[in-house]
């Protein structure tokens, strides 16, 4: 069993040994707001003026589609708790095809990581990456590629909730869930309602908007998931002095390998859930992540790679923040951040 | 001057005379979450399987576009204040081409109506209507009409910020703002970043999702803006026992005129801002609203129509909740709700 061979470090098992607080600390939000950051103006010309009746029975309005459009901005919502214990704000960056909703209420109605970290006294910024949710998306004249929509069964098979390809059925009774899964499968059908159409051509503007966010609100800690693996590491490479710690939750992408030395001053934590080995894609994704971590270490940096099962936390899907034991995973992150001196 | 002839009622001027509180009551949120409500599953068949690399350098995934899609659901975020003074929750429904961001921080960084009503002890549900923001949008195989995007100058000219058609310029110094406008024009460029692509074919599913929301969280008070004029009145007509009051803020659409008797037990307030008469479209829109109010009254119902200038509140654009005097308008709504016995 060398499954976790390069991942288990001294102290990692101890992280999980910190018990979850017996009683949840109170939620007390005393400041809240939102803004859009980043983006650019894109010009459209040569189109005919249209007359549009926006509301049935309403008064037609002329719409001249020529002009400048606000595109590639990013929506960010922030919350400030009464008792501030995080030394810097904590930023939550979601994965592909999703939005900041990822960190809100779980599909089965429990509080998500947004509330969890607010209860521990972190000021939290929760964003919708460029193109998704409240960030809006650009006209086809600006983004010519079509958006990708995925059917409701796709995340079930791809996110290690079901037993891979073919495991999803429209009939809930026939879905082949991974034995021991902590995903709240009885509420699975609520999850795909959070899906956001996506593009595969918007990584650069997404990174630019995240850099603009970091310039605006950091120094900070960034917790990022899946597709945001590349965003978290690349943005930290662009603004290493602004990022005090990186928490990569099942990252599916990584930073620039030629610039790993820039990351050596930023302590990083990489977390992987369960069922990796039996999946068709995740062994490769995890191997790429561990290889990136090793490059950072070779450059003199510090990365802790935690395979949750090895730390005694079992059954996690790719959507760890929605799993029944999401609080245990959050506590592991919290304990790690405390040990890095980022919480008081 | 019969400009406000049918709109000024005894008591209306008195509403504005209630002074805004000298000091803002504290913001203290002790509960917060989100969910998606309503929607349906739509099936797509006969499409080829595609292989997509979602993340550069990542591991390709097979995406079978055939299957069922979650469409036409609605995203709702809720907040519960410590001291609950609203007798029922207050629902905020935004206008066309926008999202719940409408009620959050204003373009110039002040607190929006969401925080304003939370500070007065209302539990608030702020939603993104079907197709917009965190509600997602359906694949072209399901919604065949193209989305409508508008350039950044469109709301400037259409929402009574500038002096109508041709008043917008990409050069801020050359924009012709309505004299006396309360819109924070120096921050105008932040506003179009909130725009959401829209369809003109989704009114029925939007109403269905709002009805599902009302079934889930009401009895309640609904504050609705612009395009949501039709949604507010039609949903109240569908669920009259669940709606204790309606606040129509510059409604651009209305309910079913054949069913106004259903609304007679629901006290309603209609609010219009400034510069209506000099606009090319708003005199008609307002006239339609007043005519709908008169139908409700003729059926025995109660509707107060307030033209803000007649109530001493001047300079309001269509985006009243973003104007510099947005607190005065909110206070007028609050005072009206208090008089209806809905706040304690």
From TrEMBL, chains A, B:
Keywords: Signal. CDD domains: Esterase_713_like-1. The keyword Ubl conjugation does not apply. SUPFAM superfamilies: alpha/beta-Hydrolases (SSF53474). Residues 1-22 form the signal peptide. InterPro entries: AB_hydrolase_fold (IPR029058), Carboxylesterase_BioH (IPR050228). It comes from the Bacteria. This is Esterase. It comes from Phreatobacter oligotrophus. The lineage of its organism: Bacteria, Pseudomonadati, Pseudomonadota, Alphaproteobacteria, Hyphomicrobiales.
